[in-house]
Write a structure and sequence with these properties.
three-stranded antiparallel sheet; alpha+beta; five-stranded antiparallel sheet; binds zinc ion; globular; Peptide Deformylase; about 15% helix; 8 strands; 2 helices; about 30% strand
Length: about 170
Amino acid sequence: MIYPIQTGEQNPILHTVCSPVERFDAALENFAEDLITTMTTKNEYGQIGVGIAAPQVGDTRRVMVVTMNAFDSERNLHKRRKVQVMVNPEILHESNLQVTLEEGCLSLPHLYGDVRRAARVHAAWYTPSGTRVEKKLSGWDARIFLHELDHLNGILFTERMSGSPSYEPPTDEK
Ligand code: ZN
């Protein structure tokens, strides 16, 4: 199913600290599939996401989806991108080196802004079936991971933004 996306900077669900998942069962796997479907289906603004977190669909469990290898060199969606569901994700280590990249968010339609974050992160998470994964992420993989992990902690990118956001009105081809 496709969930409606929770939007708005003041929306309380987007400022909720989510709870760890304790039951790895079929219902969790179904929820993960629905999150992917919601993220990869064009929304009313004609956008698809490269990441989504449970609170964005009104659920406060620590579940998120990160698209690995999301963009090609021209920042178009990569043909060989791959979605990864992450349950109870955590940062084991993040680089001192930080980079600034422009972010957007399905919950803040048309808003974009520069955010400074660690360039690399050693991350751990569980798959929906309960297998633990550890991986070193860099580039957009690290960026999307950190953005989505923020959602699970009730933080929106606008709270980390340097400067003011730019507003990009909806276009037909996006
Ligand atoms: Zn977001």
